[in-house]
Design goal:
Helices cover about 75% and strands about 0% of the residues. It is mostly helical and about 110 residues long.
Amino acid sequence: TEAVVSTQSTGESDANPFTVRQVLEDRKITANEDMNIFRRLLHQAETDHYAFYQGYEFVARHSNGKVLFEMLTHESTVYSLDKLGSLLDVLQSFRLYKDSHPYTLGPRAS
């Protein structure tokens, strides 16, 4: 992994094909794990409000949160998952609200 990162930073194209393949496989596994975590949290959110909040936090803090959200939205549409679709609608409206009403925390008074 570090060999590929070092060749990416220097611009060299002599990366070992095995190493490149390994990095790609690692990233695919990580993406699948992240998708499964988000999916599990939303299925738990059908009965648990805290899991719904955890799902929101997971997507909000994840570097590819928008992609995860869009993939799960597409999945719920394709497979006609009504409960999941309604949870995603609420989550989307909450995300839009948070984006349009950002809050800032000022310095604490001591």
